[in-house]
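thread: overnight batch results

M.L. [08:02]
morning all. the overnight job finished for the chain we discussed friday. pasting input first so we're all looking at the same thing
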Amino acid sequence: MRNLNQFYRIQSFLLVIALFAFASSAFTWSPWIKLGSRTVSYAADWDEIYVTGRMGTFNAIGIEVRKSDVHLTRVVVHYRNGTKEVVPVHKRIAAGSMTKPLNLKGVNRVINRVTFHYTTPLSEYKKSKVVLYGRR
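M.L. [08:03]
and the structure it wrote out:
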C-alpha cells in the first residue's frame, strides 16, 4: 500500500510538471496572422499590401509565395506613425515556400502598409501570389 501511495504522488507530481511545461509553452508560442495578399505578374515590379491598424502591432513579418517563384529584392514596412523600415531581402522565394521571419525594429509598431520590390523569372509567365503574415 505504501508503494502504491508513493507511485500516485510521483505520478501527480509529473502531471503537474507536464501541465506547467505545456502552459508555459502555449504562452510563448506566437502564431502567424495573415495580413493580406497580392497577385503579382512577371517582370520587375513592386506592389503594396495595406494593413489596417486594427490588426495591432507585430514584431516580425513573413512572406509566402504561391504559384510561381519570386525574387524579392527588398521590403519596405510603412508604420502608422509615418516612419518606415527598409528590409533588404535579395532572395529567391520558391513557389510554395515562405521567408524566414523578418524581424522588425522597435516595439509596438503598427503596420500601415508593406511595399514589395521584386522580379519574377521571365520564363515563368504564371502570376504569383505573395501573402504577407505578421507575428506578434
